[in-house]
Each structure stands twice: as C-alpha cells, then as structure tokens.
C-alpha cells in the first residue's frame, strides 16, 4: 500500500501529500471535483454524474471537455503524485487505498462548515453541498438542536381578533385547509391558539402561525393570508387574493389554489425557519430536494430523488416518505419504459403497506399510493378507494383528485375525469412539478377525444421539462393525427435520444409499450403513417 494522502472537507478543502505538502489545486471546479470524489465511500463517481454537478448548464460535449481540462489541472497540482487520480471513459476516482478523509471519522460539530468558502457556482453542486451539510448536521452527536427533535412541528390557525361572524369562520376554514396541506407533507399537529397570548419572555407554543383575514365589504371579497414562524416572526408566506368576479370565497377552486401555493412555499422555507436540529424540519429539507430532482425526470436525478426521500424517512420515520418512494419507483418504470420484475413489484407493494401502517390517516400518502396502484399495478379498485379515502381526509389534496381522474380514464368515465383533471391543472398554480399535471391532463384529454387540448397540455409539459419522455410519446401520435409529420418526427428523434432502445416499431406494435391511452383512442394508426409518409 502506498503512503497515505489526507483530504480535509471540514473547513476549507485541503489535500496534503504524505510529507505534509499542500497539493490542493487552486481552481474552484477542481476543488469541487475532488470533494465530490472524496465524499463518496468508494472515492469514485461516473463522468456523467460529475458533469451534472459541476457543469449542469452546459451541453454534454461542452461538459465533457470541461471535465477533461479539470482533470489535467488536478494532475498538474498533484505533481509527482498525479497517479492518485484515475479516470477512464466512464468514471473518475481517487485511489481509495491511499486516501483518508476527515469527514469519515469526525462528523462536523457545527463550528465549521463543510467546504468552507468554496463557491463553485453551479446550482446542482450547491444542492449536493447543502444536502451534505444537512446530513452531517443531522447525524452529528454535538449538532445543536433548536428544540426537542422527537416532537412534531406545531401549527396554529388564527384570524384577526376584530373578525366576527361569517368572516371569522371563513378565515378559520381557509387557514385550516392550509394547515391540512402542510400537515400531510410533514409530521405536524394543529394546536388551538393560545388564550391568553403568552408573555413575551415565554417561548411560543406553536412553531408556525397561519393567519387568514377576510373582508367582504360592498359585496366583494378579499382574503389576506400570512404564515409566520412564531419564534422570530419571520414571514414564510404572505398573499392577498380575490376570487373571480362573482366568485365565492369558499369555492373549492379558490381555496385549493391558495392553500396549495401557501403550503408549498411554507414547506420550502420550513427547514431553515424551524432549524435542522428538529428531525421533522430536516426531513422536510431532504424531501424538498428530492422533489426538485424528481420533477426534472432526468434518469440520474430521479435515482437521487429516491435516495433523498430515503434520507427523509430515516430522519423522521413518517410513512408519507415511503409513499413518495413508491411513487418515484412507479415514475421511473413508466418514464424509462422498464419491465418491472416480480421482486421489484413486491418491494413497491411492501413500501406502500408500510407507509399505510406508519401514516394511516395521511391524505398525501393515500393519494400517492392511489396513483401508484393505478399506474403501476393497474389496480383500479384499490386506486379509487385510496383516492376517495384521501379526499375524505383532506378535500384539498390535488393528488387524490388526479388519481380519481386517471382511474376514470381507464374506467371510461372520461367527462368526470376531464372535470377533475381541469380542476387540478388550474389549482396547482406555480408548483415546480406542474408539467406532471400537464401530462396527466393531456392523457385525460386524449381519452375524452379533446385532441387539441391534449396537444397544448403535452407541449407545455415538454417546454417546461425537455427531458420528460412521457408527453413526447403522446405528441408523436397527436401531431401525426393532425398531419404534422415534421413535428411528429421531431418528437421521435427526441425519444430516440432520451429513451435507450427506443424504436418506432415498439411504439406502434408492442402492447407493453406505455401508450395505452393512445391505443384506446385509436391514435397510433396516425403515427404508423410516418413509416409510409
């Protein structure tokens, strides 16, 4: 075995040769690459994975060229020790037998940051570093904890003391809906407002306060919703909303849209507001990162999403995270056109059963399971029952409504499915994953023979997420049906690039290829014209 090199990740990055010489490269990308390798147990990463963290904004050819130059820079800095860094056409590595990393044996105490001062300026690297710091703070024995980690996040719903009568009731109903939407995604409990208000010197009873005030003067209605972190009065969400002219403040579409937006924006800021020393807040941070990865529908990032969601479950133990993992596995199978073997399906089934055992009254867990049962197992009966149960637990859960819409397509109730999907598409607002809802809506529109509307929805999904394969499958047949063969061929070329082993023959003739909605609508015959056109 050769002499040992030491790599410090706690504090500024530092690479030292066995004689103590500092051989750290000066470039930030070079330092970032070393950090990516050193943090991994095997000290090894694939080239594509590294390129996606350091040059995520560049085309593959440009990213590969930048990686080659950075490897040269590192070897130059290592000098006579250049053989410490290895690479081939698939991967890059550090010799694990000759490297020790301080992070392996000494978790950060919170006194110094991991990779202190390193500014790589790539959002994917920043996500990776944020996750690494969060994970170390969560597991470190001496990491400071803001509050006892074993308790749930506490929510309280209030209205202004000046509100009385119907306005006060409307405010409480809307605030309660926001609380339900937050509560189904993070371990939390709603508590009654403090009466009387605690003294200023006493710690607040709740973590998050959801205040909704309503005014209906002169026949018009307006809602002011503000969500605040109680300890420091940091505003996590603030919004003034009016329904459409003549609309009702308690109309489902108005309340669902506002509650969905407010809950998501609050959850995004929750880990920093409450503090990563609280297990539930740390788990929310892992979940937030996982969903950001999932909504890209990039194969490598979807795999990362599952790992992050697993971290969320290990941190908190909320069954909703297992339901998300099952959903991610279903999405991976459909998006990559994989053939799940019995063992895979058994694992997913086990995840869903455990999720229900741990979170029997969680509407989000039941809604995600409903979609997974319907789309992966073709179990419509269970899917409909689970989605209906989810809506009884939380009438504002959009995943449950969409699950009923998807099941309705298969059952032939397309008008009702279209109504449900249209509601979700409108209410989801600026959700980072709204292209998924556009895909669902396109599928429902095809089943209801609304082909122009389906085309618009699928195009919007692709525009938002170019690596999203599923809407491109729909667009091939939709464009061909309108005689736009050039646009159809563009989608075919994209599928050939994004989907390993894709062929037009399988698309048209393989009953296992995931375009059942197109088959039922008799649209594949138009795509077949591409072969002769």
Automatic annotation (TrEMBL):
Top-level division of the source organism's lineage: Bacteria
InterPro entries for this protein: AfsR-DnrI-RedD_regulator, Sig_transdc_resp-reg_C-effctor, TPR-like_helical_dom_sf, WH-like_DNA-bd_sf
Signal peptide per UniProt: none
Name used for this protein in its record: Transcriptional regulator
């Amino acid at each position: 075995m050769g002499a040992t090199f030491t790599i410090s990740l706690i504090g500024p990055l530092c690479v030292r040769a066995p004689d103590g010489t500092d051989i750290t490269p000066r470039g930030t990308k070079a330092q970032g690459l070393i950090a990516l390798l050193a943090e991994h147990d095997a000290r090894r990463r694939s080239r594509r994975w590294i390129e996606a963290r350091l040059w995520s904004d560049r085309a593959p050819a440009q990213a590969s060229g930048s990686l080659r130059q950075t490897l040269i820079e590192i070897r130059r800095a290592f000098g006579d020790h250049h053989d410490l860094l290895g690479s081939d056409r698939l991967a890059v590595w550090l010799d694990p037998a000759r490297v020790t990393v301080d992070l392996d044996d000494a978790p950060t105490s919170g006194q110094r940051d991991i990779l202190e001062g390193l500014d790589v300026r790539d959002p994917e690297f920043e996500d990776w570093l944020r996750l690494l710091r969060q994970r170390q703070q969560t597991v470190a024995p001496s990491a400071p904890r803001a509050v006892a980690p074993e308790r749930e996040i506490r929510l309280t719903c209030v209205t202004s003391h000046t509100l009385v009568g119907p306005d006060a009731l409307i405010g409480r109903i809307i605030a309660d809906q926001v609380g339900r939407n937050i509560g189904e995604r993070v371990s939390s409990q709603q508590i009654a407002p403090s009466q009387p208000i605690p003294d200023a010197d006493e710690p607040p009873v709740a973590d998050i306060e959801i205040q909704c005030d309503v005014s209906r003067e002169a026949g018009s209605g307006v809602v002011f919703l503000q969500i605040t972190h109680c300890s420091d009065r940091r505003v996590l969400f603030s919004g003034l909303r009016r329904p459409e002219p003549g609309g009702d403040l308690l109309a489902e579409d108005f309340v669902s849209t506002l509650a969905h937006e407010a809950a998501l924006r609050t959850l995004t800021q929750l880990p920093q507001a409450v503090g990563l020393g609280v297990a539930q807040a740390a788990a929310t941070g892992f979940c937030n990162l996982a969903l950001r990865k999932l909504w890209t529908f990039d194969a490598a990032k979807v795999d990362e999403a599952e790992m992050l969601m697993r971290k969320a479950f290990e941190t908190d133990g909320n069954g909703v995270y297992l339901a998300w993992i099952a959903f991610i596995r279903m999405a991976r199978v459909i998006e990559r056109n994989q053939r799940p073997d019995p063992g895979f399906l058994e694992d997913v089934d086990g995840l869903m059963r455990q999720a229900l055992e741990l979170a029997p009254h969680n509407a989000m867990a039941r809604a995600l399971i409903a979609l997974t049962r319907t789309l992966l197992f073709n179990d419509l009966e269970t899917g409909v029952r689970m989605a209906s149960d989810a809506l009884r637990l939380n009438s504002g859960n959009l995943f449950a409504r969409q699950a009923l819409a998807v099941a309705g397509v298969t059952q032939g109730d397309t008008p009702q499915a279209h109504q449900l999907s249209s509601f979700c598409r409108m209410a989801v607002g600026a959700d980072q994953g709204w292209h998924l809802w556009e895909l669902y809506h396109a599928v429902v529109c095809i089943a209801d023979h609304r082909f122009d509307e389906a085309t618009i929805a699928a195009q919007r999904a692709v525009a938002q997420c170019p690596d999203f394969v599923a809407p491109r499958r729909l667009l091939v047949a939709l464009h061909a049906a309108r005689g736009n063969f050039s646009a159809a061929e563009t989608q075919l070329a994209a599928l050939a690039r994004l989907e390993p082993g894709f062929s037009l023959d399988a698309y048209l003739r393989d009953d296992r290829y995931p375009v059942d909605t197109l088959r039922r609508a008799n649209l594949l015959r138009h795509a077949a014209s591409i072969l002769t056109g």
